[in-house]
Specification:
By secondary structure, this protein is α/β, with parallel strands linked by helices. 21% of the residues lie in helices and 22% in strands.
Length: 651
C-alpha cells in the first residue's frame, strides 16, 4: 500500500469472475496474467497522475493464471461511505506488469473516452472505471421472439439520431435511441441490431497526427484530431474493451453501463429485442470472448449477437449453457460438426447471416439473366435446424436508394482514390447516375425500391432492414462509408414526399407479412404435398401455371404458398408474381380448390395496396356449396407490368 493511505485494506479474493465485482465485505479485482515479473493493481483518484494505492500482486493472490484481490474499507477510516461508493465515485484503476500499465480487458466501464473523436491522454488517460451501482430491471425478462416473427433493423447508434433532423434531445446516444422507440414500433420493428457499441477506439493512436501550435510548438490541449480518419463503424478498431458499453454513445447523464441497461429495458418493455454486433480481433482469447458474450447476456439482458466466427468458434457458443439459449447470427452453421459433438440444432438460437440472399435478390431485381431458379431457392429458404436472416442491404455496401441510383461506387471522400469498397454491387441506376429530377427515372426508382422491400418481406426466414432505407436514405454512392462521420452516414429524418411514400409502403408491407403466416413459417419448405391435401406447401410457376421457367433468359417467377400448411390448416394462400422483365407479361393464375378466387392485394408498379384483404378470413366451403360444382375453376390470366411484383391472396 502506498505510504500515507489509510483508507483501504486488502485480502485474498475468490476465484472468478474476472473484472471488478462487489463481494461480501469489499470489492474484488480479478485479472488473468500469465506469470511475469513485478505486477501491481493501482488505484488512482480521478484526475490524478499518480496512484493513491498500489497493491503488489504476489503469489498469495494467485490462483492458476489469475490474481484475485478484495479491497476493503480500512477499520477506523473517517469516510462514512461504503467501500463500493468510495471506489465508484472517487477512483479509477489500472494494472501494471513488467513496468507497463494496461486497462483491465474485463472492465465494464472505461474512462477517458467520453468524447467522440477526441484523444487527449495528457488531461485524462484511458483507465478502467468502477461502476458498482445496483440497477432495477423492473422484472425485465428475455422476450424470446421466434425468428419467424422477427423484423430486424440494423442501425448505428451515433448515426441514427446525430442529424439535426432527428429532433431528439440526446443526439447520437443510447438515450437518443430510446427517444426513437415510438417510431420503430409504428414502423413494425421488433428487433434491432446495433453496430459495435462496446468500447472501441475510433481514432487510431499509432497514426494520429496532432497539429502543433505555431507559437508554442506544443499540441493544443483538448484539440480534436482532424488529420486522422475516424473508424465510424468500429470494426477492426484498436484497443477494444468488449465488456464496456461505449462511453461516447452515452448522454453522460449516468454511467454508460447504466444508460445502456436503461435502453435495453425500454426496448424490451416495448416488445423489441436488442442484438449486438461484436467483432472480435484476431488473437482474442477464447475464454475472454465467451465471458464477454455471457456478460452482455447476464448483466445487460442482450437477446442476441452477430459474431465473426473466423475468430470466435461457434462450437463454443452452441455448447455454452448460457449462450446456447441466445440468438447468435453467423455466416454459416456447420450442423454436421455440431451433431458430431452432441449439439442439436436450435431453431430459435442459431441464425444464418450471409450475403447470399442479398446478392441474388439484387441481381434478380435488376433483371440479370439466369437468376430465376436461384431467386426461388433463396426466397423460400429455411431450415429445421437453424434459422435464416435475409437482407438486401446492410452496413457494408449501398443503401437501398443508392442501389437503384448508382451503377458504380463513389468512394472518393474516403481518401483512398476510390479503390476501397466492393466492385460487385449488383446495382442499376435506372438510367441516370446519381441524383436526378427526371420524373420518369424517379418513378422507376420508386418501383424498384418497392420491389426490393417486397422481395425481402415476402420471403421465408427473418427479414433485416437497414435503418434509413425506409426513408430513402442515401450515402451519395459511397459503398464503404466506414470512415464517414457526417451527413453521408447520418440518417436524414426530413419527411420528403419520397421518404413519406417509402415509409408508408414499408409499414404496410410489414403489416401484410404478419397477417399471412404462410410468408413467415417456422418449418422448412418441402415443396411437396405432405398433408395429402392436393397441393404442395410451395409451388413455383412461370408465365404458365405449374411450369417454372428456369431458362437463362427468363425473368418471370410465380410462387404460391398454400394456406393449408399454417394456422391448423386454416391459413390463406398467397401467390407472389415477380416480373423482372422490361415489358409487361401475361401470367396464368393457378387454380384454387373448390371455387376459391384470387384477389390482388399489392401492385408495386401502381403502388396499390388493398388493406381490406388483411381482415378477410378463410371460411370453409360447405358440402352444399360444393354440390354440383367442379372442384376447380377455369384458369384465369393476369397482366403484370414491367419490372414489378403483384401479390394475390386467396378469398
Amino acid at each position: 500500500m502506498v505510504k500515507g493511505n489509510r483508507l483501504f485494506e486488502y485480502r485474498t479474493g475468490n476465484a472468478l469472475p474476472f473484472g471488478v465485482t462487489k463481494v461480501p465485505g469489499g470489492v474484488q479485482f480479478a485479472v488473468y496474467l500469465p506469470k511475469r515479473g513485478s505486477m501491481f493493481l493501482k488505484l488512482y483518484k480521478k484526475g490524478k497522475k499518480t496512484p493513491d494505492c498500489q497493491i503488489a500482486l504476489t503469489e498469495k493472490f494467485r490462483m492458476g493464471g489469475g490474481y484475485f484481490v478484495v479491497v476493503c474499507k480500512a477499520e477506523g477510516a473517517e469516510d462514512s461511505r461504503s467501500i463500493e461508493e468510495i471506489l465508484s465515485e472517487d477512483y479509477e484503476y489500472m494494472y501494471e506488469a513488467d513496468g507497463k500499465e494496461f486497462v483491465d480487458p474485463y472492465a465494464d466501464y472505461v474512462t477517458g473516452r467520453d468524447n467522440w473523436g477526441r484523444r487527449v491522454p495528457q488531461t485524462h488517460p484511458v483507465r478502467g472505471g468502477i461502476c458498482l451501482e445496483e440497477f432495477d430491471w423492473k422484472e425485465d425478462m428475455p422476450l424470446r421472439i421466434p425468428y419467424s416473427d422477427l423484423i430486424l433493423y440494423q442501425l448505428h447508434v451515433r448515426g441514427y439520431t446525430k442529424h439535426v433532423s432527428s429532433k431528439v434531445k440526446h443526439k447520437g446516444t443510447f438515450r437518443g435511441l430510446m427517444e426513437k422507440i415510438p417510431y420503430m414500433k409504428e414502423l413494425g420493428i421488433n428487433g434491432i441490431v446495433l453496430l459495435p457499441s462496446y468500447e472501441f477506439c475510433e481514432v487510431a493512436t499509432d497514426r494520429a497526427e496532432v497539429r502543433l501550435d505555431k507559437n508554442s510548438g506544443s499540441a493544443r490541449t483538448g484539440q480534436q484530431i482532424t488529420d486522422q480518419k475516424v473508424n465510424y463503424w468500429g470494426y477492426g478498431a484498436e484497443e477494444n474493451f468488449y465488456f464496456a458499453p461505449k462511453a461516447a454513445y452515452c448522454s453522460q447523464q449516468s454511467y454508460p453501463s447504466v444508460e445502456f441497461k436503461e435502453m435495453v429495458r425500454s426496448f424490451h418493455s416495448n416488445g423489441i429485442e436488442v442484438f449486438l454486433d461484436i467483432y472480435f480481433a484476431p488473437g482474442t482469447n477464447i475464454f475472454l470472448m465467451t465471458d464477454c458474450l455471457r456478460s452482455w447476456v447476464l448483466k445487460y439482458h442482450i437477446d442476441g449477437f452477430r459474431i465473426n466466427q473466423e475468430v470466435m468458434p461457434l462450437i463454443n457458443v452452441a455448447s455454452d449453457p448460457i449462450l446456447s439459449d441466445v440468438k447468435v447470427l453467423a455466416a454459416y452453421w456447420d450442423m454436421d460438426l455440431l451433431r458430431n459433438v452432441g449439439i442439436p440444432g436450435k431453431k430459435n438460437g442459431m441464425g444464418e447471416y450471409n450475403e447470399g440472399f442479398m446478392n441474388d435478390a439484387r441481381r434478380f431485381l435488376k433483371g440479370d439473366e439466369g437468376m430465376v431458379e436461384r431467386a426461388a431457392r433463396y426466397f423460400s429458404r429455411n431450415f429445421d435446424t437453424h434459422s435464416v436472416v435475409n437482407f438486401i442491404t446492410h452496413v457494408n455496401g449501398f443503401t437501398l436508394m443508392d442501389l437503384v441510383s448508382y451503377d458504380v461506387k463513389h468512394n472518393q471522400g474516403n481518401g483512398e482514390m476510390n479503390r476501397d469498397g466492393t466492385e460487385y454491387n449488383y446495382s442499376w441506376n435506372c438510367g441516370v447516375e446519381g441524383k436526378t429530377r427526371k420524373k420518369s427515372i424517379m418513378d422507376r426508382r420508386m418501383v424498384q425500391i418497392r420491389n426490393a422491400f417486397l422481395m425481402l418481406l415476402t420471403s421465408q426466414g427473418t427479414p433485416m432492414i437497414l435503418a434509413g432505407d425506409e426513408l430513402g436514405n442515401s450515402q451519395f454512392g459511397n459503398n464503404n462509408a466506414y470512415c464517414q462521420d457526417n451527413a453521408v452516414t447520418w440518417i436524414n429524418w426530413n419527411m420528403t414526399k419520397a421518404a413519406s411514400e417509402i415509409y408508408e409502403f414499408v409499414k404496410k408491407m410489414i403489416v401484410m407479412r404478419r397477417s399471412f403466416p404462410v410468408l413467415h413459417q417456422e418449418r422448412k419448405i418441402r415443396m411437396a404435398d405432405t398433408l395429402s391435401c392436393g397441393m404442395p406447401d410451395l409451388s413455383v410457376h412461370g408465365v404458365q401455371a405449374w411450369r417454372p421457367d428456369y431458362t437463362n433468359y427468363s425473368r418471370m417467377l410465380g410462387m404460391l404458398y398454400y394456406g393449408e400448411y399454417v394456422e391448423e390448416r386454416k391459413g390463406r394462400s398467397v401467390y407472389v408474381i415477380f416480373n423482372m422483365y422490361w415489358e409487361a407479361k401475361s401470367f396464368d393464375l393457378p387454380n384454387l380448390p373448390y371455387g376459391r378466387t384470387w384477389r390482388v392485394m399489392i401492385d408495386s408498379y401502381a403502388n396499390t395496396f388493398d388493406e381490406t384483404l388483411l381482415k378477410s378470413k378463410k371460411k370453409p366451403v360447405s358440402k352444399r356449396s360444393r354440390k354440383g360444382k367442379k372442384q376447380t375453376e377455369l384458369q384465369k390470366k393476369t397482366v403484370v407490368p414491367p419490372r414489378s411484383i403483384v401479390v394475390f391472396v386467396e378469398e
